[in-house]
Each structure stands twice: as structure tokens, then as C-alpha cells.
Model the fold of this input.
Amino acid sequence: MRYLLALPLLLLSYVGVPAAYRTLSTYLFRRGDGFDFTAQFLKNLTGYDGFWPVPVAVLLFAGLWWMTAAWPRIALLPAAPLAFMGVLTGLIDGWQKLVLGVATPAVAWGLAWLAAKIVSRPITRDVRRSAVEVAIGLRGDGRLRVQSRRLLLDKLPPPRHPEAPVGRVAIRFDRISHVEAGTVHTPAQWRFGNTSELTLTPGPVLRVIGGGQEWLLPVDDVETTMRLVVERARARAKADPRPPLENSRWANAKKLWDLQDKQSMQPNQQKVKHGMHHAMLVLSVLTAAMAGYAVFRVFTDSWGFLVGVLFFGGVSYGLARAWASLGATQKLAEENPRPPMADDPDPRRIPVTGWSSQPVVLGQTSDL
Done:
């Protein structure tokens, strides 16, 4: 039911807003000629005239239907180029196009953001046991993303070491050994496996141990968050064997292991950029579409288009392989900032000064 409510908003964001921009842009160019808004909008809605970001955005959503944090960013794929053209022409041709260019990405992003909120809030039993991503802001910096198979912590301060290859950390549900609600009574610093340090302000804190890591997360609604983590782990935990340590995908993780005992001489101010490799996926989808068009022309025009099939098909395949390889390397580093042979921290230990635990303590997720 939630997706039935969210889907129209997403279609408006990914397809309707670009069509509306092109309709209004055409109107501003041809004012006074008996302009038919409805006919022009329907024409733009059903025909893209080579504007490939719209179908690519729809395909990306189909692949990332559970990752709500990505929905607003996907909306910017078709909206951003239109905004650029609108602002550029608006500076030359009038303020109306400038306003249209600025409003287009804002409206598209807002509709996708609202759709994400509809499917993830309020956090009821069906949400806790589903695959849909739930994003929870922390006090200060940081964001906890309760995903389908893991917990992901992003938007952290820059890693203390500039050589750190990832700015995020993650724990898979099948590796969680301890979840605990507690309180921090005095400010404290907490360091994560990627060397990022988070300031813990006094208040409720969620403690998670697993995969050789220990997290202290300053969340205001700690009871709801703990229940979400536990029930999602119970319903969605699935074992994912690690590759052999000789595998090249461990390269970034091994860099993190070497940094654990090193002290940075100067604090790092540069955040690690994530998601750049997703441009490869977008280009792969685009070249795959070109290869598909070349296949169509082979059967309707000439065998000479077979060259395009082989070229664009090969490029698409290579980009897809590179995207998958880089993504797997990054994911392995996020989930293993400590060596796999490292033991989990002792939950009986007091993690920081001023810590007091609440009586609710949960054990291995396999037993939940």
C-alpha cells in the first residue's frame, strides 16, 4: 500500500517534472501562438526525443527500489541537465526561464523525498521486517541507514587519516552479536573503523557490536531504532561468505587495517567521495540502449549496424563489470574495517566515560 501511494509521486518526479519543464519552456518560447498546454504536455510525456536521462532514471529506480536514500538523487539525473539549460538561457533570455530552471530540480527532489518518507515512515511492523531502507539522523554528524541486509553509517566527519579509502562503515545483520540501548552523560569522542570520529553528545545512545566493530550511535528515539534493527536483523539476516584474503577486492580493506594503529599528524578535512563509480552504471545503461537500437537497425536497415552492436555492447559490458568490481571493493572495505579474524569487542566493557546501559540487551541475531 505504501508503494502504491509513493509510485505516483516518483513518476511525477522522474517523468512528469521533466515533461512539465519542456512544456513550459516551449510555451515561453512560443507565447501568443494559441499554445495548447495539454497536447504539448502529453507529447513531452510520451516522447523523449532522445532525452535519455528520463528512461535511465526509471531503470535505476527499478534496480534500487529499496534504497530510499537514492531516490532523490535519481530524480536529479533528468532534472539537473534541464536546470542547467534553464539557468543558462534564463540569464540571456529572461527571468522566467531562470526561475523555471531553479524550480525544476527542487520540485523533482522534493517529490522523490516525499515518496521515500511515505514508504519508510512511520516505522511500523511491516516496515521493520521489509527490505525498504530507513534513514535515521544522528545527533550532530552522521546518518544510520537500516538497509535490506546491513546497517550503513554515512555522512560521518572526514576520516582522521587522509589515506582512508572509505568514509562510511557497515555491519551486516548476520554478523551482529550485541544490540544495546544506553545513555551517555558526558560528551565523548567515538572512533569508527574508517578512522572517522564522532562527538557523542549527552543523551540516548544505541550500541551495536558485530563484525569486529563497535558502534555508539547518538539517536534520540533509541527504543524505536533498536527495535527496528533487531526485527530487521531477525527477518533479513543472510550469510554472505567473505572472499579469500588473497582476492584483489580486499585492497581497500587492507589499507584500513594498516591505518588502525597510525596517528595522523594533522586532522584531515577532506571527505571521501562515494558513488562516483555509479556514473559507470549510468553510462553502461546508456550504451546498452545504443546497442539495442543498433540491433533494431540490423534487422530493419543494414548489417553494417552490427559494428555498433559489438562496439556499444562491449563498452556497456566493460562498464558494468568495472562498476560491479569497484562497488564490491568498496562494500568489502565498509563491512570489514577490522580484519575478519578480529574478535568482537566485549559487551561487558564500559565503552566511554559517562556510559550507562539500559536493561534491554539482545543477543545473537540468529537466536532472535
Q: What stands out?
A: The radius of gyration is 24 Å. The longest helix spans residues 306-335. The CA atoms of residues 79 and 106 lie 9 Å apart.
